Amino acid sequence: MRACWAIPLLLSGPGCHPSMADNPVTASLGPEAPFWWGVATSPYQVEDPGEGVFATDWDLFYERGHLRDARGDGVGSWTQMARDQEALVELGVSHYRFGIEWARVEPEPGLIDRDALAQYASYARSLREAGIEPVVCLWHFTFPDWATDLDRPDANGWLHPLTGDRWGAYVGAVADALGPHVSLWAPQNEPKAQAMAGYFLGIWPPGVSGDLGLVAAQTDAAIERFNEAAAILRSRDPDARILTIQNQVAFEAQAWDALGVFTRIGDQYNHAHLDGVHHQADYVGFNYYYRRKASPFAAVEETWPRGIRLAIEDLEARYGKPIIIMENGIGTENDRLRQAYLRAHLYQVEAARRNGSDVRGYFAWSLVDNYEWALGWDVQYGLYAHQEGLLVPKESAHLYARFIRGDESP
Length: 410
Ligand code: BGC
Fold this sequence. Notes:
Blueprint: H1 7-10, E1 36-40, H2 43-46, H3 57-63, H4 81-91, E2 95-99, H5 102-105, H6 114-129, E3 133-137, H7 161-178, E4 184-186, H8 191-199, H9 212-236, E5 241-242, E6 246-251, H10 261-277, E7 284-294, E8 299-302, H11 306-319, E9 323-328, H12 335-354, E10 359-365, E11 384-387, E12 390-393, H13 395-405
Parallel strand pairs: 1-2, 1-10, 2-3, 3-4, 4-5, 6-7, 7-9, 9-10
Antiparallel strand pairs: 7-8, 11-12
Helix pairs in contact: 6-7, 7-9, 8-9, 9-10, 11-12, 12-13
Bound molecules: beta-D-glucopyranose.
């Protein structure tokens, strides 16, 4: 049993609860804890509907002809959780980040599907039994169809009246069902990125272009819901630990932009949601993929490993909390590129740690090639391929396993 010495460092929530040191998870969350080696997925990107009868805003958006591919049966991760777990064990990860599909759990407002919750709970239990700590995300871009009004974007998603009414009950129901097996919770994944894609770029539901007012309103509403979720999770379990998942983009200063407008907007983009929720978080988690350059004509995204280290340092300086990389990866058919990407980014993470940054974990995106939102099935982020119902490891999966085992350094 460990003493609670690490707690002041960790918590912005309740103090040292008597049961905390007895809980094997929370007792080992201090800076001395082993590094979290993880991998991540999201429900809409990998699950099949199974027996569930429900729909999300993405299904409605697809039916209206706005998306190139349907999600369909995903990679079958709802009916084949045991298969996925085998791959996780093979990789040797200590943590697995997966998400809950709100529409599945609550197919109609107020109607909670207890069987679906029980299946998620048994997955979390089974992961723990296999020595893999679950990290559960409660919202990853999708809303139930009943919280969707594609024709009234100002009353859609986080701004839909039913979202405000039902979110707390949904979070409470998940916390009750999974709480015995889960201590690490991320209320939301990248709400700002979703608001930008849905209300500014117009490529995600509800398909609105150029409405920065709605981007801000959605983000503000998401902040409220995040804080509500954190309070509910802590009230159910004082040992609950809350993580943010922020999309962090590196913005390159441009010679033509002498006033730094581009980087200032980028800075606002990176921090808008976190500024509103960091006080509720035990860990500041972020996703990092690339650097964005702007020319007066177009924005270009490029791989830039150093950006992950700068993101760590920026977020640590700004919020003063332990840092977790919640997603990092590259969408490519070329697995050699993926291996180089993984190695180069982990090298930067290591460099930050050696320099004293308090980085507690790293999650590769993603376990398996999956449904890449508006880009459909053509972009491959997986360490595993999905072939005829099986998960087949790529060379990058073997490389990641060697990093995790310590057989090789990045
Ligand atoms: C999202 C994932 C997505 C990944 C790659 C992240 O921002 O959370 O859902 O697949 O980017 O585009």
